[in-house]
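Re: weekly structure request thread

Next one in the queue (182 aa):
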Amino acid sequence: MKKKFLIIKKLKKIILYSSFFVFLLSNNVKALDYPEYEGKNVVELSGKFDSGYVSRLESDLKQSSDEVRVVFLDTKDKINLTFYAPKLFDKWSMSDTSVLVVIDPYLNKIGYGIGSQVRERIRTKLANKINKKDTKTEKKVDYDNLASAIHDKFAEEIPRVSEKNINASKNSEGASGGSSSS
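Done, posted below.
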């Protein structure tokens, strides 16, 4: 009889802890909801940025050759953006040439969803940087230049013209007469 009582007592504890665990999980599921894609490249769900900033960022992102989407979330440190961003990328069925950047501006945390073609570019870029021993990493988000930072991180390498070559080009135009106004 005593053995039966102990078994029932243990079962009650198991049921109590299980129901508590299910309760905790059900509350966290709400935090893991993924927003539906509504056609905007910037989704502001954190409440930190005004519509003017969002509009400027959308305009800046349109200048990229790849599709770039940015989502601002207030995660309250309950969501790991490293896992969240790729899942949202898949849910939104983004292309191989696109990038999704999910940012919690309150905690300064970032997660990325990256298309396969962009990922390959990053590997190439990283290999080149390692060969050049240029491995600096930036930890803080620069919200004023966010579109440029995203573009610099994910865009194809564009050969840069040195200032010396630009000046030489200008001097040769001046020497050959260039254009004159009458």
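Helices lie at 2-31, 51-61, 81-91, 116-132, 146-154, 163-175. The radius of gyration is 26 Å.
Next request, please.
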